[in-house]
Amino acid sequence: MPSAARTFDDVDQLRHALAETGYLADDALATALFLAVRMRQPLLLEGEPGVGKTHAATALATAMGSPLLRVQCYEGLTAAETIYEWNYPRQLLAIRLAEAQSTTLAETDLFTDDYLLPRPLLAAVTHPGPGPAVLLVDEVDRADDEFEAFLFETLAEAAVTIPELGTRRAAVPPVVVLTSNRTRDLHDALKRRCLYHWISYPDTARVEAIVRRRVPAASTWLAGQVAAAVGRLRGLDLQKQPGIAEAISWTTALGVLGLAELDAGAAERTLGAVLKYDEDFASVRSAGLSALLHHG
After folding, report:
1. Which residue segments constitute the domains of the chain, with CATH numbers given?
2. Which residue from 265, 269, 275 is spatially nearest to 253, judged by alpha carbons?
């Protein structure tokens, strides 16, 4: 029997539970997540790439002890791809077995729950509980208008329809988190349906704390150097601004190489962990590595 998901009495309790998973949320984000859980209203998280929107949802699922069901959005994503598919190999096997036994299968015999393969939306709606699943709809701004309209209806009804089997309604509605990098504006109808929170890039002290939590082998000094350096890099006109993930990756790379100090030489060797475009490498070198990495 599935175990009950963990519940939280207040925002502080949830924030501490998130911290136990390695995710350091400020009071505003912890409050937004707490309300999403308690009100069972979808939460739309927006912010620049790399600020931890996706990780917020995964950390919430871990903190709650709930399954995480993720829909990764992209251009051309259809509703059917997120709801279900039929197990065609198993259906074909059933047909061949029936033929071998000289029996006949009706179409309704092949389109039953035995041959149904749930995708994330259906799995979230049909999750048996007793606690809710966490449904992550990641980068919803990359999907088309048609999918966004479908998603709005699904969230409003907490139900999905399978033509061959009918409508499935959630006995335990999921906790829904949508993320957006704001590559396009979402429709007002969807935004009105959701709670909203903008995740800003954290200040240097919080980045240092996150790096220390995620890379425990790193010294406080090195974590502080990396956090300060990433902050300065974000002040440059780069094609891809480094986020928290890059700060963690940079610190890890330095540790793998046995480098305990982020000086110009160490940075030159490991810039590939934090920069992703050749033009950005040129911009950083033009600005001067020593000046950018000075830790006052």
Report:
1. 11-84+113-198 (3.40.50.300), 204-289 (no CATH)
2. 269
